[in-house]
Design goal:
The protein is α/β, with parallel strands linked by helices. It is 55% helix and 10% strand. The protein contains 8 helices and 6 strands. The protein binds iron/sulfur cluster.
């Protein structure tokens, strides 16, 4: 039975499993819909997030909100978390030791939420989820299947803040995300319809069988009654025949 997000957050507590606990202001757990269909995974909190205790609230977060609209999504519908829950000083890259220390929390978050689609933002999240060393440029724009999840790697929104030439590509990727969501919704609706039909057919079959059994039971009971009736009648007749003949007695 997976934990709830609240239980997981309590378990993490004031985590000191790696050296980032010494430099962070706040531990940034994650935010959003705990039953989201789409989960976004970034790298680590930046300065704004470290101060505000929420992922993607700076300039990159504002740009992410604009991009979500291209996929037909809003922030309250999705869940967002990072590979690291604490900010690396000066926004340096996460170290392998830090990723290893922190990644069990992300794995547990994914289990709790159970999304259909995971969007990895940037290299570190993509490497972690797809277990690959390939660069994001060669992986973006394609849907990857890993376990039960469809994974769509996309550039980190911060990259498009500094390099605007990445924006058309990012916007294309969010439109692709919108189409992927529609496809998964249609598949889900079709599966739910098939399950409902199978349930109705099973119920109808059970009712028919129960009706036949009841009918058979009634027929058997009727036969038994008829036999009993015949036997009783025969007994009565036999009894009548055994009675002494009283006619002619002189009383
Ligand atoms: S980065 Fe993760 S493992 Fe390191 S202190 Fe923060 S929560 Fe703990």
């Amino acid at each position: 039975m997976p934990k709830s997000l609240e239980e997981l957050r309590q378990e993490i507590g004031d985590c000191r499993r790696c050296a980032l606990c010494e430099t962070r202001t706040t531990l940034v757990f994650g935010v959003g819909n705990p039953e989201a269909t789409v989960m976004f995974i970034g790298e680590a909190p930046g300065r704004q997030e470290d101060l505000g205790a929420e992922p993607f609230i700076g300039a990159a977060g504002q740009y992410l909100n604009e991009l979500l609209a291209l996929a037909g999504l809003t922030r309250p519908e999705i869940y967002i978390a990072n590979v690291l829950k604490c900010r690396p000083p000066e926004n340096r890259d996460p170290s392998p030791v830090e990723i290893e220390a922190c990644s069990p929390f992300l794995r547990e978050q994914v289990r709790c939420i159970g999304p259909q689609i995971i969007v990895t933002l940037g290299n570190f999240a993509t490497h972690f989820i797809l277990r690959t060393d390939r660069g994001i440029s060669g992986l973006r724009g394609q849907i990857h299947i890993t376990g039960a999840f469809s994974v769509l790697p996309i550039f980190h929104p911060a990259a498009a803040i500094y390099d605007r030439s990445k924006r058309p590509v990012m916007e294309d990727d969010f439109r692709l995300l919108g189409r992927l969501i529609e496809t998964r919704r249609a598949e889900y609706a079709q599966k739910a319809g098939q399950e409902q039909q199978a349930g109705q057919e099973q119920q109808a079959g059970q009712e028919q069988q129960a009706g036949q059994e009841q009918q058979a039971g009634q027929a058997k009971s009727g036969q038994a009654q008829a036999v009993a009736g015949t036997r009783a009648e025969a007994g009565a007749e036999a009894e009548a025949d055994d009675r002494p003949v009283q006619e002619g007695l002189d009383i």
